Amino acid sequence: MSMRKKFCRHATFGWYLSIVGCIAQLSACFAPQGVPEARFRRAHELVAVGTRFLRERNFSEARQAFELASELAPMAAAVDGLGCVALLEGRYEVAERYFWEAYEMDRTYEEALVNVGLVKELRGQREEARAIYLEYLGKNPLSAVARNNLAALEYDRGMGTMVTIDELEKAIVLSDQVVIRDNLAVLATK
Description:
There is one protein chain. This protein is mainly alpha-helical and about 190 residues long. The chain has helices at about 35-55, 60-70, 75-90, 90-105, 110-120, 125-140, 145-155, 160-175, 180-190, and strands at about 5, 10-15. The longest helix is centred in the first third of the chain and has 19 residues, at about 35-55.
């Protein structure tokens, strides 16, 4: 049984199949300079719509919603959402570009880095993925998503059950999510 990875404030990823979704949250509370507040609010709503479509595996509609949001207001969450669509469609190079673009747009939107880590991992670049997860956790030690992904990576790398359990238990304390509980259940069968 494989462990599941969680990525993107927009979805969870369980080796190409499972989309369980989280509520998308914007990286800032205020509209970017020069963008009318009403337009920013509408863009925020479209990110939520895109997130819903992503959960439903309706990638075409999700892409459209994230593109519209991005046209209305330059926001990292919309670009990150486009990356999630590309990732779930198996277009890893495109996804990675979107995630880096989201991070470049807003350096406080560091969740995009977790997504870059997942892309690196899926492309077989495990050491790079691990470095990204560790760097992210150095800045954001309270990230359940990064801890879950690091635990699953360490498990896949054969680092042992204790290392994996330690990370997953920390992740559970931070956010009691089904994906993390399922991963602990995988280890319980070992």
